[in-house]
Write a structure and sequence with these properties.
The structure holds two protein chains of two kinds. Chain A is mainly α. In chain A, about 75% of the residues lie in helices and about 0% in strands. Chain B folds into two domains: about 60 residues; about 70 residues, no CATH class. In chain B, about 35% of the residues are buried. The chains are: A mainly alpha, B mainly alpha.
């Protein structure tokens, strides 16, 4: 069946009442998560993961993808209205969005951000539709050595997630690999790293780990900050024709930059938004307007952010490589539902993949509807006091961690990693590399063992096979490129915020 | 909150922890290696291969972090005064919650812990905290027990 036929089938499934409802609920929750400072998309996906246990895998992943997408849309609200970038990807939006809000044009900035996100998101999904199946088809020729090369390629993401210090990122990644080793070994099923403590036989579960690192720690960090509600009244979110005309070239350029760079495993949204912003400033006839409320300064980074987020679905669905922490969690979610991420997903579960792809189109439309006319409601919701939000997140985290395996040990894991995560985040240690390595660890190990078994223990197998060698060379090139781009971005983040932030 | 905190030793602390973890990794890899040799004659790789690599990498990174000069910008302000008390109370409440649930059951444990969290974290008066706690417990019970049919701990009281 051709791509359009598959897509039509995907739409038929995605438009069923349950899937449509899940796309709506996911987008709604995601926007809420993006708007409310206190819970990022990674933590939100982890906490809400148990709620999807009553759903079929497609409906569950549709909802979780909606949370991811929605958070990307919603993140611009606090950046524009409060000058608070929830994540580094929203920092450039603050630079011109907040001055626009101060000039009484906050509504227009929010409207342009939503339209830019919609254009970029839809473009990304369009390319995903035609490009990912072809990529997955090529990847079907992969054997264990090529998969090992692919995992090394995925490892380059660690560089972009490391922030200012590569050593810290690598240290966190290695800790993640070590955590993933706890439990039964893949070759002999011999328990490893349990030191006589039998409950550890089944290993550390992904959800309690993420809930602790990203949700519990975030609540304690939020408690420290005096978080303020948005007092501004928002009107005129529908930009005028002149605004749209002014912003559209920036939206298209931001989409292009965000998408093309987003295809590289080492380029997170935090990186591409700065490149899009700087490119726009360089191309502008009056660059002095930037930083004082230039509409292009909102349009370009917001479009780049969503284009990169959409592009991340291509390596995720076609190769099983996550480009960011929330996508790593979605990858983990696929395995929890018994699906094998990577090229075989298109072959073994075509209905599932095409339903997800179709739901991304639908999700973009839902998010545009949620973000343009309903922006006032989101602004109102930021008035929920942290004294209510914080305990609610902790209570949800507790039951969320418990309900994955009905284990109080998992709750203990989430608490321990919550406190540890708080300490690490206070000292700017990046947590995303730990999560990525924890998820990729078992895949890397399996392919390493299989490859070395094939070659009688010789690591030369990785360079003797053309595809594997190409992937390893690609990983080295990407590593070098990522290092340069990340250094550039870290410098720009410091200039913009006077502090270090994880990319 | 203090305006500027102590010069951090976090790199050294994490470095030392990584050294310990690396040593543990290599020790475990050696145990698994001996087991592999005794179980499967001629097997060159097995469950010990990756732990050995990770253990070695942890040792190298741990050593680097222990010896490398700390980055200049890492000064951390820790909370103090009432805020610190609130944070410590909240952390203690969570630990107590974890300890109490197997005894009191999920519903009673959540009722007590949520009230304590709203009181300690949000600073609400007791009647408001109790109301918010009861509301949260009710919603969580409906979602997880009634809708999702999760077998939540019932405890000694059977609640």
């Amino acid at each position: 069946m051709d791509v359009l036929g598959h897509l039509a089938g995907g739409f038929a499934a995605a438009l069923t009442p349950t899937n449509l409802l899940m796309a709506f609920v996911g987008s709604l929750l995601g926007t809420l998560v993006g708007v409310l400072p206190g819970l990022g998309p990674t933590a939100a996906i982890a906490i809400l993961f148990p709620l999807t246990s009553v759903l079929n895998p497609a409906a569950a992943i549709i909802m979780l993808s909606g949370i991811y997408y929605g958070a990307m849309y919603g993140g611009s609200t606090t950046a524009i209205l409060l000058n608070i970038p929830g994540e580094v990807a929203s920092v450039p939006t603050c630079l011109d969005g907040y001055p626009m809000a101060q000039q009484g044009r906050g509504g227009v900035a929010l409207g342009i951000a939503a339209i830019g996100s919609f254009v970029a998101g839809t473009f990304g999904v369009l390319v995903l539709t035609f490009f990912a199946p072809a990529l997955a088809d090529q990847a079907l020729r992969f054997g264990p050595p090529e998969y090992f090369g692919l995992m090394l390629l995925a490892f380059t993401v660690v560089v972009s997630l490391s922030g200012a210090s590569l050593a810290r990122g690598l240290a966190m990644a290695m800790a993640g690999y070590l955590l993933a080793l706890i439990g039964l070994g893949p070759a002999t099923a011999e328990p490893r790293f349990i030191f006589g403590f039998q409950p550890l036989m089944s290993g550390v579960d992904l959800i309690p780990l993420v809930v602790g690192l990203f949700a519990v720690s975030e609540v304690f960090l939020g408690l420290e900050e005096a978080r303020v509600a948005i007092a501004q009244k928002i009107h005129d979110v529908f930009p005028r024709w002149a605004d749209l005309k002014e912003a559209m070239p920036a939206i298209l350029r931001g989409t292009g930059i965000g998408f093309i760079l987003g295809l590289l495993p080492g380029c997170a949204p935090g990186v591409t938004v700065f490149l899009a912003y700087d490119a726009e400033k360089k191309l502008a006839r009056r660059p002095e307007r930037f930083g004082r409320g230039a509409i292009e300064g909102v349009a370009a980074p917001e479009s780049a952010n969503n284009a990169t987020s959409s592009a991340g679905f291509i390596p995720l669905l076609a190769l099983g490589i996550p480009a960011s922490a929330p996508l790593a969690l979605l990858l983990g979610g696929l395995t929890v539902y018994g699906l094998q991420p990577g090229p075989l997903l298109f072959q073994k579960n075509p209905q599932f993949v095409w339903t997800i792809i179709a739901s991304l189109y639908i999700g973009n439309v839902i998010l545009l509807i949620l973000n343009l006319p309903l922006v006032g409601m989101w602004v109102w919701l930021t008035r929920v006091p942290f004294g209510i939000l914080g305990p609610a997140i902790l209570l949800l985290s507790f039951v969320g961690a418990y309900s994955v395996r009905n284990s109080m040990l998992d709750v203990a894991v989430s608490l321990v990693f919550g406190f540890l995560g708080y300490w690490l985040r206070k000292y700017q240690w990046p947590l995303a590399p730990l999560l990525l390595a924890f998820i990729l660890g078992p895949l890397l190990e399996n392919n390493l063992i299989q490859s070395l078994s094939m070659s009688g223990g010789s690591p030369l197998i990785f360079v003797h096979r053309g595809l594997s060698l190409a992937l390893i060379v690609g990983a080295v090139v990407l590593l070098a490129t990522s290092l340069i781009i990340v250094r550039y971005t870290s410098r720009r983040v410091r200039e913009a915020t006077a502090e270090e932030m994880a990319l | 909150m203090k305006p500027a905190g102590r010069r951090c030793l976090d790199g050294r602390v994490v470095g030392a922890v990584l050294l310990v973890l690396g040593a543990l990794g290599i020790r475990e890899a050696r145990r698994l290696s001996l087991l592999r040799e005794s179980l499967v004659a001629g097997a060159i790789v097995g469950d010990d291969t990756f732990p050995m690599m990770v253990g070695a990498a942890l040792l190298v990174l741990g050593g680097y972090l222990l010896l490398a000069p700390p980055p200049p910008s890492t000064r951390v302000a820790w909370p103090s005064g009432p805020l610190r008390r609130r944070m410590l109370t909240s952390a203690a409440t969570l630990i107590a919650y974890w300890l109490l649930v197997p005894w009191l059951g999920y519903t009673a444990g959540t009722g007590i812990a949520s009230t304590a969290l709203y009181r300690g974290m949000g600073g609400y008066r007791w009647p408001v905290a109790v109301l918010l706690g009861a509301l949260s417990t009710g919603i969580l019970y409906l979602v997880f027990r009634v809708w999702l049919l999760e077998p939540l701990p019932i405890g000694l009281l059977g609640a």
